[in-house]
Structure formats: C-alpha cells, structure tokens
Amino acid sequence: MKNKTSTEKTTLHPRNKHRFRYDFEKLIYNYPLLKNYIFINEHDIDPSKSEQEKQTIDFANPDAVKALNKALLISDYGVEYWDIPKNYLCPPIPGRADYIHYIADLLAESNNGIIPNDESTIGLDVGIGSNCIYPIIGNNEYNWSFVGTDIDEKALQNCKKIIANNPHLIEAISLQLQVEPRYIFKNIILPEDKFAFTICNPPFHASQDEATKQALRKVTNLEKEKTLSQDKSRTSEAKLTLNFGGKNAELWCSGGEIGFITQMIYESVKYPLQVFWFTTLVSKKDNLRSIYKTLNKVGAVEIKTIEMAQGQKISRFVAWTFLSEKQQKDWKFTV
Hints:
single chain, 9 strands
C-alpha cells in the first residue's frame, strides 16, 4: 500500500485508484504503445523530483490521452480490449471514476452506510458514448450492472465491440439505442425496470461554435508553457477534435446543458418508483439555481448536490429522488 505523500491528489475521492501520480512503468508494461507519448516535463524544476517523477504526457493530444486511457483500463480495471473511433469523446478516467465512487456513497447513505456490491444493483448510463467508461469502472469497482443508452448507433456499436472483447462485461452491460433523440428516458425505462441510479455527462454546449471556442480555451490552458502560434497543426486539430474528441451529440444540443437537464427532470417525473436516484453532472455552477427551481416545481422529495474536485477544477453532480422516506427504506439493495 502506498504511503500518503505530497504527490497524493487528495482532492480525488478516497477510493479513487488515481490519487497518486501515474505509475508509467506499470502502465507501459501493460500497454507498451503508451511509451510513444511519454516525455520529461522540462518545466517542472522541482529539485526533489526524479526524472521518473517528472514524466508526463501531452494532455492536449487526443492520441496521447487515448493511449493513457487504454493503459489505465488494462492496468486498473481488468479490461483486455478498449478503443474508440476517431473524433469520439475520450474522457479523463480519474474524474469519471470519482463520479462512480460518489454514486456509491450516495447509495450507501440509503442503505445503512453499506455500499451495494452486487450485479442486482443496476445503473442507467444516459449517453454512454462510444467509450463505455462508466459501466466499466462501476462493474470493476462495485460489481454493478448497467444499461447504456445513446442516440448514436455507431457509438453503441463500438461499445458492443468493447463488451464482446471483455467476457466479464457481457452479462453486466446491455445497450439500448434511443430511437427518438428528443427524449431521454422514454423508450428506455420500461415498466418492469428498476434502477438504483441514473448517471449522465450531458452535452455542455448549445452550439458547435460554442464547443469549439471552449476547446481552444482548454488547449491554450494545457499549452500555457508553450507557444501555440508555433504549433498551428495542433490548433487546427483542436478545432476538429474539440480537445479530447467528441461528436455533435456528445458536446452540444439545443438549449445546451441546462436545456438537456431540464428535459431530463421533466421526464424523470414519469418514473418516480422505478429509479432511486436520478443524477447528472452539472458543469456550470450558475445552472444549479435553475435546476433546483425545476426540481422543486416537479415535486422532487430529496435533492442533493455532490461536489467533486480534480486538481483545481471543481465539478459536481445533482441527484434527486421522488421516493418518500418510507419508500427509500423499503428499497431492497443486495450487498
């Protein structure tokens, strides 16, 4: 077991496997191609650090981030195969893992402090994308099962390939195409379904132009030690890939984040007894006031905002339930 050191990322959830610096030696052993993207950070002048401790990758390079994800999933989450098509969202795994761990804490609060740890605990991943990250982490960490939905058939086909090449996931994850893109839960939550939670990383932006501008701001921040004007190809790539990739439905929708979440809230009212906790990430803190107003309007019994931090970045998710206190106590979790 690692000792707590100054390199520990104490802002991450205590159970997050990524609280310490990446063990690149281990990651390269499990995925040798990662070596092509690792370099020594010459801007890190801390004399107490060895060259190994100064190793990093270019987080503005989508290929480097994808290689790191592959290595992490193989090394830490029991995955034998993982890949995504070009230009699809390649999310940073530590932050996605945090969401899963805080969901586990949320469920424990409703289960006498015990985290459900069984395949009968089923989560609904709204907008699973092509990466299948949340179900992979949730199944590995807590043995949960998942239904993953998306409006993009190509994304689901890639998830199907990931699942088929990882036999332990075949019974744990099922996929469902949302055939009516304007809806979120309709056609997906059927009368016989019962979900412990829903999970969602909603489209952040209201338009492609807004998403592209935000991507370029991210690249500028990641490249603050470099001169972007000397690397025009990377800037062009950022415009195309929006930093870590992402197709239209992954990054923007009409009404942006607040429009998507508002739609989700209004639909959630129709399934009050079939889902314990509805949850969604909220990237913009300013949206919380409107979200709470809508949740109160539709009669949510309990609403929570759980804050998460990855380094200096603060993120959060909102959770709500329509179950009464008695109904919550009567909900059966298997541990």
